[in-house]
Amino acid sequence: MARKKRDYTYRSMRDEREYGFYWYSGLWRVIRPILVVVTSLVVIIGLLMTVWNKVYDEYLAPVDTANTAGVSFTVESGQSLSRVASNLEQADLIRSKTVFKYYCDFAGMGQKIQSGSYTLNQSMTMQEIADQLTKGDGNPLVRTITLIPGWTIEEFAAKLVSDGVLSDSTEFLNLCKTGEQFKDYYYISDVLATSNVSQRKYVLEGYLAANTYEVYTTATAEEIIRKLLSQTDNVFPAEMQTRAEELNMTMDQVLTLASLIEKEAKESDFAKVSAVFHNRLNQKIKLGSDVTIHYITGVRKMNLSSEDLQVQSLYNTYLYTGLPLGPICSPSEAAINAALYPDETYVAENYLYFCAKDPESGELYFSKTQAEHDQAVAIYAPLWKAYDESRGIE
User: Fold this and answer.
1) What distance in Å separates the CA atoms of residue 384 and residue 360, rounded to the nearest whole number?
2) Bridge partners (DSSP) listed for residue 72
3) pLDDT at residue 260 in the model
4) Is residue 365 helix, strand or coil?
5) pLDDT higher at 107 or 281
6) Above 70 in pLDDT, residue 16?
7) What share of the chain is helix, strand, coil (3-state, %, to 5)?
8) Using CA atoms, how far apart are residues 394 and 386, in angstroms rounded to an integer?
């Protein structure tokens, strides 16, 4: 019996050893491919990291992470991405112009790089440099300028200086005064050919089209003037030329009449004022327009003195029959249309006079006869005097 017990014990131990071997063998068969895969991945990742570090160090890393000294860098207007990348490499701000160009193209930054003056440094990454160049240097490339209808050249020049567009108005005003620099525009050439042109306050008065424009921050006085003159073609197209010919008027005469209308009335009364002026012109009656006196003296007042009315100037429509020597401001498109298309009813009924009512409202009173006009003046003149006094004008 004891022998059998030993045999049993021996077999049990052998079975346990065999069982344990098979258990570990099965587990190894499961773990081994996993370990192979993991080891392979570690090796591959290691290789990739090595390659990446080499590529990053040679092409992508900042040139010198410890150097934060500013480096001036300029992107000129119109420069290509290739030229910008090449200049960055030459300035030792990036490691590879080729990689920088491909990065910008891939990131969609190629067309967004802005001209300007930048301060970069060698510690900046390629991405940081690209971001900075696409955001701009903080200095705008263009600025907006606005010429308000009814403004004179002198008012506009003062505005350009106050806005910092021009440092001084002298050159601008001189160019506008002679107009010689712009005779390549046919309508300026026509003005220069008119009689008494030398007596005009500014040859270009009325020809700088009232509008809002974008100009380069580096624009000169001449470039700004040309920008505005080019718009005149748009506000006085061929159909207006045809209409002017129907009225037996030149473009200069239309703009001159429109400038008076612009200054005399609110837009709602433009066509009526135009009708009065057309009637007086056709009947060879002096226009007697106060705004022409304002243009000569530079002072806008409602109650004109006898001295004001006698000031010697071809702009004075109280002394001279017909239109003044030239435009007295930049008229709006609405005023130009009114000059070409006066109110037909007021023309037919032969309205010849108008005067201001309450100066604050801008309303006008229209009359057909001198007697009616004199009566209206008697009623409203005290309001004009009070208005001038409130503004300190005698």
Assistant:
1) 10
2) 119
3) 98
4) strand
5) 281
6) no
7) 55, 5, 35
8) 10
